## 1
Amino acid sequence: VSGSGPGLDRDGLDGDLRDLVEGTLDGQQLALSRLISHIEDRKPGYRAAMRAIYRESGDARIIGITGQPGAGKSTLVDKVVDRYREQGLTVGVIAVDPSSPYSGGSVLGDRIRQTSRSEDPEVFFRSMSSRGQGGGLAAATFDVIHAMDAFGKDVVLIETVGAGQNEVDIVSVAETVCVVTIPGAGDDIQANKAGILEIADVFAVNKADLDGAHTTRKELLQMIRIGNDLDDSDERRWMPPIELTTATRGEGVDELLEAFDDHYEFLTDTGRLSEERAARFRQELRTHVDAELSALVDRLVAARAPDHEDGDPHTGAEAVLAPLRAAVEAELDGD
Amino acid sequence: VSGSGPGLDRDGLDGDLRDLVEGTLDGQQLALSRLISHIEDRKPGYRAAMRAIYRESGDARIIGITGQPGAGKSTLVDKVVDRYREQGLTVGVIAVDPSSPYSGGSVLGDRIRQTSRSEDPEVFFRSMSSRGQGGGLAAATFDVIHAMDAFGKDVVLIETVGAGQNEVDIVSVAETVCVVTIPGAGDDIQANKAGILEIADVFAVNKADLDGAHTTRKELLQMIRIGNDLDDSDERRWMPPIELTTATRGEGVDELLEAFDDHYEFLTDTGRLSEERAARFRQELRTHVDAELSALVDRLVAARAPDHEDGDPHTGAEAVLAPLRAAVEAELDGD
């Protein structure tokens, strides 16, 4: 009998996986890296491992950084990591790129991109792509956040490349979301303003040494004001600050971190932090349900749906839905 | 007893709805407009109505037109409609805009936008937004396509505004998909090329009177060539033609319609048309299943998922999945 304690034994984790979980909770990078690969690939026992991990998570600050391609997010993330390290905080970075052919794991964290902190053992970098995701990229990303959190990272940064709905869904589980844009991106912002206003807690106008940074800031400010006037019923509202940054020179990064801190303070002072965590819990749960349910429905469709020559889509949908609807009714009947 | 015949009676349609279905099949615009509102709102009996409609559909050509905001899609669609009318064909237009506050129905088709064919009874225009969609915008759009088809339209054009995944999913049920772009959009195309190459059967470089049209055409051509070299195993492959159009002056529109015709001929000659229809049937069926299943899962989550203070997302997901998984196993057990 190992010294793992009753908590881990109860989860029914087998020896190897239990070692990975224990190693992760002990702060061993190799264990974390291997555990992430295990849960990313949805290998047997990953749910039990995640239960054990989840119980030990909840202390890290989760910050999302997103924005259009070419906005300089990677460089900005690099500088944000530097500043947190200067404050003595440990950092995990998850770079999500659905279109990337790279994913997974070199031994001490996967560093496919050279960062200024490549040799710093207190920075753990992991890139994630759609490749090899059994249960969906969002579901796996949520699990990796918890693993880094339970490992002991003070700050977990999620960087999403691109601006698709999938990436927005992923980054929106962060407590603080920073939307990165660049001077002259007014049209793109206008086109996506509904989605951006909904998720942005802080704006960074990066490459602020280019012409038009102040114009872009004004456009954003106006957008925020209009958005907030339309919904001013809530006294506890947060007006997203707009920081001008030039990540390549490290300019504006201190102010950006102050904005993150201000937002975190706002969340705790207003009680929103626990609201956010409850919402994130629901979103994670639903993501895990949908990932597995999709495969179950595939099997039903293959077995029950008529050929397109013999039926119509609604009748076919009914044939698939009937057993599922009956199961839900039966399950809720006793309530 | 009306003269509706046994086909409609068997569907169990009540009097009013049966009248709308019959009127639609008779080519009455008012009936079509009211039927669309009924199925769009998922009012009682809409599934039975869709079954009756579906049996009478399948003759229309379905053409999707999509592309970035500001590409001039509306004007181009207008000119395409004009040309089809000059050929003596009747046309239905479905303009899908998830962000639009407008939807639904004025009496003779909903014409919130002035078109050159506003007074032409052989052109039926309908705009659709996310507002008031019980079962999802995509599911409702598919049903409206069938309604216009069964009504007797020779061509149904689906115009999607914006370039989100949802719009791509909607337009991809069309037999022929035209992606509209503009000179100088090279970066946007590069950023989205995977999605664009997958769905585009024909490209239109609109606003071709602007500088850079030929450069954009060359960029597209190169992208198509690379994409096809990577997947040259299929002898029956289609190389998407690239047409330069200036919709405001009607230039290039004849050539665009010829490209649509060429693609349709390719589909029929190679037997792909029936493959496309089988795929579309499956996609429609799945969309209808997912729309209702989502509501069923909401109920299970509300009843069975733990609070975020008492559990973890994976255990919560298990509680929701268990009855659904059991139902699928039981249903497929006899197979």
Note: Residues 1-7, 101-112 of chain A have pLDDT under 50 and may be disordered.
## 2
Amino acid sequence: VTDRESLKREAALRAVALVESGMVVGLGTGSTAWYAVEALGARLRAGDLTNVVGVATSRATEVQAEALGIPLGPLEPHGVDLAIDGMDELDSQLDAIKGLGGALTREKLVALQAKTFVLIGDASKRVSYLGEKAPVPVEAIPFAQRVVAAELAALGCTPMLRRDEHGEPLVTDNGNVIFDCHFDAPFEAGEVARACKAMSGVVEHGLFLGMADVAFVASDAGVLELTR
Amino acid sequence: VTDRESLKREAALRAVALVESGMVVGLGTGSTAWYAVEALGARLRAGDLTNVVGVATSRATEVQAEALGIPLGPLEPHGVDLAIDGMDELDSQLDAIKGLGGALTREKLVALQAKTFVLIGDASKRVSYLGEKAPVPVEAIPFAQRVVAAELAALGCTPMLRRDEHGEPLVTDNGNVIFDCHFDAPFEAGEVARACKAMSGVVEHGLFLGMADVAFVASDAGVLELTR
């Protein structure tokens, strides 16, 4: 049995194999995306790729990419050729929940500007419906947090303010807070997505619907390539 | 001819006259709202009002209110009895453009939780249609700014990144940037509002549609009370 970290790395390698010289590449955030950034750095160092620019979805990824010598640029409209990122949950339509790493807003912005958006992960992330295992993260401005919590609860979930290792409310790279919204039963993802985005004080939510073009899902049996 | 500042103050006094003891009062931001906060502090000091709690829409207003001894509290769901704020433009339906003071996101959050939302200003703010004189401010997260600028331009306006007195991009209390969107021709405000709110990377916009219950508009002829 292959361990979880090896599986993450295998999925990441498959995605990074799609990168070509001259591309602008969206660099995801989180433990699986970390392997992709590492592999991209290795291909650049090996001279296998040239003239690649990364767009980092978080401060953490920026730090990692800089250490690996990957040149970084700002997010431009329609300016990303290929975005690679991990997922917390993936259904059969390639709809996903993201945001466990706290970078959902920048991740979604980069994915939306990408010609091709690739999700990577191990098979434990596959679900029969979104919300089966993971909560839906929602980023909100701190001033609005009591109002947003009440409005999220009205959608039928239990919103939990995410905390850091010190028990303090986690602050995102954008200076905001995150509610992890736990649903007891399956929900209509499109409706929840629209309702969340319409709330004043909500910056973004972690439902990535109709966005991914490809997903690489690694299990002991190998890496499965899923397309929409 | 009464000067502009006196008119602002007269409108503010009319709004503050609506405050009753025990109320939670939304405290707006900007030069006209400043007079309202000042007048509220005076009524509290005079003992004319007791047990009033303010909810400040900006750090600047927080500082002013604290200096005046107005107790402040957080924004709670449906937790504001009366919100008082200035406007940049007001049409005959009491639809408004706000955000010249840079506090539009918190202002809208407070107004949305208010049982009664009162706008105040001098008569120069009245327009026959929104956008006649003022741009529509849109608050966006800095990482998204190039994308949001392109998407705003696609709505038919010219988005100008607001700058501070040093020429640097202005940073809001929420750590974001503001685009002042100049429209050359009248636009359908409801459509622009929906389109702005739907954009990833946009936190809030300055179109306050169907929100104000009352407006006090001061001119040389006196203070006009407008209701919807």
Note: The radius of gyration of chain A is 17 Å.
